[in-house]
Amino acid sequence: MKLPNCDSLEIEEFFGSSIPKRYATLSHTWEADEATFQEVGNLERMNNKQGWVKIRQACRIAQEHRCPYIWIDTCCINKWDFSELTEAINSMFKWYAGSSICLAYLEDIELDLSQSRVHFQESRWFTRGWTLQELIAPPQVYFYDKNWEFFGSRYSLAEITGTVLESSWAAGRQTTREEDIAYCLLGIVGVYMPLFYGEGDRTFIRLQEEIIKASDDASLFAWVQQRSCPGQAPRQLYCGVLAKSPDEFAHFKRLEIWPRFRQDFEVLF
Length: 269
Prior knowledge:
Layout: E1 2-4, E2 11-13, E3 24-27, H1 43-46, H2 50-64, E4 70-71, H3 73-76, H4 82-98, E5 101-105, H5 130-136, E6 141-144, E7 150-153, H6 158-166, H7 180-183, H8 186-189, H9 202-214
Parallel strand pairs: 3-4, 3-5, 5-6
Antiparallel strand pairs: 1-2, 6-7
Protein name: Vegetative incompatibility protein HET-E-1-like protein 8
Domain DUF8212: 202-228
Domain Heterokaryon incompatibility: 23-108
C-alpha cells in the first residue's frame, strides 16, 4: 500500500502489518490536471498542477486529524503497472474501511451559510460510481467544499447522504470507463475479480456471476430491463437471466418480494 507522508509529501510503501494504524483517505472526482504517481517525484512539474494543490491541502487536513499519512488514488496507484492496478481496485474498499477518516472533497460546491445544506447533494461527487464505496466504507467521512471549508460529516448530514444510499446503490451512477461500473462495486459485494477492459457490459454480468458463487441472495434476479431511450435501438424482446447494468435495479426500493422469500434479503445494487 502506497501512502504519501503528510509531512514530507514523499510516497512510502507498506506491506501487511507494517501499514500505519492511523491514516486518512481522500475521496474526490478526477479533474483534467490531476497529479499522477509518475509525477509526484518531479516537484518542479508538480507545482504547476492544480492536482498538487489538492494533495497538499488534503495532507494538511489529514494532519489536523492526527493522521501522518493519507491515501489518494491519483498519486498512490501506478496505473502503468496493470498488476498493481488490479490489486488496488480489488483492495480499495478495504483501504477506505481501514482508514481513520475519509475527506470527501466536493470541488464543484462552495459553502454558502445563507442556503440550505441540501444543495450540496447536487455535486458531481454524488453521481460517480467510485465514490459510492468511499461514502460507505470509511468509519468517518467529512465533507469539504471547493475552498476546503468543512460543512458536515456523514453522520451530521445523514438525512441527505442516507437518501443517496437508499437509491438502489449504484443505479444512476456513472464511470468514465463502462467496465468500471462493475469494478467500483467489488468491495461492496465482497468479491475479487480480474480486470478486463474492452468487454463492455459483460463485466457487470461477470460480477453477478461471482456474486452467485458466493451468495444465495435471490434479490440478484429482481431487475427490470430498461426502456429504450431516444436515439437508442429498441430494447430486446428476449434477454438473459442477469442484468447488464446497475440501472436495471433502480426500481428495487419499491419491490415487494414474495413473502416466503423475504427474510434476510439485502439490496445488492
